[in-house]
Every structure is written in C-alpha cells, then in structure tokens.
Design brief:
Distance between the termini: 88 Å
Strand order of the largest sheet: 7-2-1-11-22-21
Largest sheet: 6 strands, mixed
Number of strands: 25
Structural class: alpha+beta
C-alpha cells in the first residue's frame, strides 16, 4: 500500500511538472496575411487546434471594417457542405451561421421568381421547392414564411446563404471567444499593415530554419514605415493578387529548403472561361420593395429569403440587362441587386445620374425609377453611376502552395514555413458556387496536414510519409516541413481539378448576350442535357454533368473532373463508332 501511494505521488509530481513546464514554454507564433473569411478561418484553426499565437495582418484600415455592410463587397455566400466542414469544427460559430442565414437544399432549394420584362404580363406564381420545409406563422410583414431554418443537427445537407460581412462578423465573434476562454493561442488583429516581404530569418549569414520574417508597411502612412514580424508559420490568405505568393514567386532559388518546388511554380496559371472578365456592380434596392403586377393582380412584395430575376426589355448584345437578387436573412435590410454584363455593355459608359436613371426606367418599365417617389434614392443613383464595380477574374491557380525550411528531423522543434489558402491559390468567377467553400476547404486541408493526417481524406497516414516522424506523447507527429510538403503534394492536384470545374461547370448562367455566347450557350446546354439523359437511361452508370457531381461533397474536385472525363471519353467513342 505504501509503495502504491508512493508511485501515485511520483505520477502526480511528474504530471504537475510537465504541466508547469508546458505552460512555461513559449507558444509557437503564426502570421496570417489577409482578414477575409479564409484568413480568419485559418487564424482560428491555428490558435484553437494547433495552439499558435496568431498575428492577423490586414492591409485595410480599421475604419473599413469587414464586419459592416459595404456595397462594393455586397457578396452573398452559399456555404455548402464543403465549407461547413470548417464551420462545424467550431459549433458555436456554426450555429450562429445557421441562425443568421437562409437555408437551401441544392439546386431549386429556394423560391425563384422570374419577373417578365413586359409590364402587361402577370408575374408567374412560383412554388416553394424546399424539402422538409414547414409553413411558419405570419411574419411581421404579413407574408407567409414558408421555410423553417434547420437546427444545427439537421443542417448537414443544406447550404446557407449569408452576406459576406455577416460571415466575417460571426467568425470574428469566434475569435473573441477564443481570446476570452483562455484555451489555445491568442489572435491579434493588426489593421492597416500591408505585407512587403516574406523571407526566412538569417543568423550569422546562415539560414535559421526556425522562423520566417514578414515585413509589413503602414498602408496609411506616407513615411513608408515598416514593422517586422517573426513566426514559425506564415499563411497567405490575401486574395488573388496575393503579396505573399508574389514574394514566394520572386524569391531567389535556394531561399527555402532544397525539397521545395521552384519559385516559378508560384506564378499563377490563367485560363479564360466564358464568364471571365464580366463586370459587376451593385444597385441597392429598399427592403420589401413592391413589383407591380398585371391583370388586376396585387403587386408582389419581395421577401428577403427568395431569389428574384427581373428581366429587362433590352435583349441586344450590348443592351441586355437582368437584375438578380439572392437570398438573405434580414427582411428589413437593404437588398443588393447584382448587375452583371459584358465589359462592352452600354451601362458602363453612363456616369451621369439622370441619364443612368432614365436608362434603367426604359430597360425596366415595370419598375418605378422616377426621380420623385421612385424606388431608388437620388443618393443611391449617384453612387451607382460613379461606381466602377469589379470584374470576374480569369480562372487561375498557383501550382505552388507551400514552402518550408530545411527539415532537421526534429518534429518537436517545429521548423518554419509558408502556406497559401483561398484566392491566393485559386480564383475564378462565382458561377459554380464554390469560391468561399473551396477557400474554407483549403484551411481544413491545411489543418489535416498540420495534424499529421492525409490532406484530402483526413485519415491517419499509413504509408512511407511517416518516415520522418518523431515520437511525442505516444503519437507519431511529422515535422512542420513534412506536413507542409504533404499539403503541397496532395492538395495541388485538387486545386487544378477545381479550376477545370470552374472553366466548364456553369459558365453561361449569366446569359451572356453576344451572338457567339448564345450559340455556345446552346451547345453547352445540349451537352448538359445529353449527360443527364444518359445518366438516367443507364441508371447512373454514366455520370451526370460535372456541375451536378460537384454538389456531392464526398467527391473531391479531382474525382469530379475524372468522372466527367470518363463520360466525355465514352461520348466520343459512341460518336466515332456511329
């Protein structure tokens, strides 16, 4: 008995010593460049799941907070099952997203109303097509709310429409909780700091593979003062024109480990799709605005959770317009209306307020755009007329995803490296609905890599990749260099597959009006219809179109495109045989 108590005392003493020693050890440092949804997600993963202290660098000043509505960034995300793999790692954040968004079930999961251009035609009645939807009581607008928000437990197979600023806001709230609860690392946001360079640190003219130095300048200062930050791991989540990626692409050969890919691999490969370079800007409509009806029917009062496409009488190659409204939760919020056209559209030549108003009144005679008492205020017309808008990017991706310092074989020391996520490694137009989801999946895959798991499946590694592993607390852990190398090797083919999907998935959904567009859209639609028919008559033996396959989150983008390629090969064989 005395021996047993003595052994228990030694065990308690050892445990206490190890705990105190762990608390005294300085946390490893990480720097995340870019505070959009992907950058904030990466910060949360590093702090919460890998116990880094994170410095989050954002080039925009504090006054231009990303948690407030901005008409120049009035994007709406549909966070599908891929994106939810990230949000579900943080249950409180995921539940907030469910509560603040509009649920939809795949294609046709939200009510769509197409409003005819001719004001003499009645607005067709559209049925709500939301599986398992329940009719709730009347809301405060007097209209029926015909869909119920799934609970967190039942929300697995739905997507969630949410404005960009709301998405960032709920993620920032998760950061506040992370910093308050005392578990894991801390996240510090530094605004107005623009990344200038990313290099491994040096000591005595030699490489110190234990850290990376990020130099940032004060974007608001005319003196160009710079600040240096040192970290073990740097994440570039700073968009399609990533400065971090630019630094890696222009680094001299030999800057990083000899096992890293060449700097030229960080130069993005660019491809043009039919949706590339379309121009978009937002016209802000009032909440619950009314659309006049015909045949003596009452006007249609718009509801924030529904999708609307309002057609114009203009149908020419340079005049075609359509107003698109996507779902959002707050029925009392301003409705951002997307205007998406070819760059040569007439609307981009108009900057005069009255001329712009008159142009829209002629294009949409059903709506009241008059100067006095019209739907849109004079201030909004002025803002809209002067707004430059933005352009959809080409389909581009970076073959390079990560670099790392020389691996000293000691997994416990951590090492150093840089990894890219989100638009820094892939950018494309939003027609396949995977932009934010692919970015969040990058963070999930990086999390798996840092945890010593297979990047795409999340399963334990059972192959020779564990040769460099070291034993720690009874588990096999890879060094940071090995983890980043695996992120590079396993995730890069997935990014290439994603860009192929972006090029061919649904590039004509914006009804581009050029004559060549119309011919090619017909051919694309015929191809999709043929694949759907073959899939049906063969009872699923032949795969459906890639845009349909991409809705299956259990398939990687690489698997989606491989299946689509097999169908293409089969169709070619049948045509040649015929």
């Amino acid at each position: 008995t005395m021996l047993k108590r003595f052994l228990q005392f030694l065990l308690l003493l050892t445990t206490s010593y190890n705990t105190i020693n762990a608390l005294q050890q300085p946390r490893q440092q990480a720097i995340v460049v870019g505070s959009g949804p992907v950058g904030v997600a990466a910060s949360l993963i590093l702090a919460n799941r890998h116990h880094y202290d994170v410095t989050l660098l954002e080039s925009s000043p504090a006054s231009s907070t990303q948690t407030s509505y901005d008409p120049t960034k009035a994007f709406l995300y549909n966070v599908n099952e891929r994106g939810q793999r990230l949000t579900k790692l943080f249950p409180n954040m995921h539940q907030r997203m469910v509560e603040r968004s509009v649920a939809s079930m795949g294609f046709g999961g939200t009510k769509l109303t197409i409003v005819p251009a001719d004001p003499e035609k009645p607005i067709p009645e559209q049925k709500v097509n939301v599986p398992a939807a329940a009719e709730d009581d009347n809301d405060d607008t007097g209209s029926k709310n015909q869909r119920s928000m799934p609970s967190g437990e039942k929300a697995g197979n739905v997507g969630f429409w949410i404005p960009r600023h709301e998405m960032v806001k709920l993620m920032v709230e998760e950061i506040d909780e992370q910093n308050t609860n005392g578990e894991g690392g801390k996240i510090t946001l530094c605004t107005g700091m623009e990344c200038v360079s990313v290099l491994p640190s040096t000591k005595n003219n030699g490489k110190d593979t234990a850290s990376v130095v990020v130099t940032a300048k004060d974007a608001s200062s005319s003196t160009q003062e710079t600040t240096t930050y040192t970290a073990n791991l740097v994440i570039g989540a700073d968009g399609m024109n990533s400065k971090v990626r630019h630094c890696l692409a222009n680094a001299p050969s030999g800057t990083w480990s000899s096992n890293c890919i060449q700097p030229s691999k960080f130069l993005p490969k660019k491809f043009t799709s039919p949706a590339s370079f379309l121009r978009i800007k937002v016209l802000q409509f009032p909440p619950q605005f009314e659309i006049p009806n015909a045949d003596g029917k009452p006007p249609l009062t718009t509801f924030s959770e529904d999708i609307y496409a309002i057609r114009s009488v203009n149908t020419g190659p340079r005049t075609y317009l359509s107003l698109g409204l996507l779902p959002m939760k707050d029925n009392n919020a301003v409705r951002p209306v997307n205007i998406i056209t070819r760059p040569d559209h007439e609307v981009w030549t108009i900057q005069d307020v009255d001329t712009m108003r008159q142009y829209f009144q002629k294009a949409f005679p059903r709506l009241n755009f008059s100067k006095e008492g019209g739907l849109i205020s004079n201030e909004e017309w002025e803002r809209f007329a002067k707004a430059e808008g933005t352009r959809f990017p080409p389909c581009q991706y970076s073959p390079g995803l990560a670099v790392w310092g020389d691996d000293d074989g000691d997994g416990e020391s951590g090492g150093s490296g840089v990894a890219l996520c989100g638009d820094a490694i892939h950018a494309f137009s939003p027609d396949i609905g995977q932009g934010v989801n692919a970015g969040l999946m990058d963070v999930v895959c990086l999390d798996r890599a840092l945890s010593g798991l297979d990047v795409e499946s999340g399963k334990e590694i059972t192959d020779s990749n564990k040769n460099n592993a070291t034993e720690k607390k009874g588990k096999q852990l890879l060094s940071l260099a090995s983890n980043l190398e695996r992120y590079q090797k396993q995730h890069a083919p997935e990014i290439a597959g994603l860009i192929r999907l972006a090029r061919f998935g649904a590039p004509y959904q914006y009804k581009q009006p050029h004559r060549a567009d119309r011919v090619l859209r017909f051919l694309w639609t015929t191809n999709v219809a043929m694949r759907l028919l073959l899939n049906k008559v063969t009872f699923g033996l032949i795969q459906p179109p890639c845009i349909i396959l991409s809705q299956n989150a259990d398939l990687t983008f690489r698997q989606v495109m491989n299946r689509a390629d097999r169908t293409t090969a089969l169709i070619k064989t049948l045509l040649l045989a015929g």
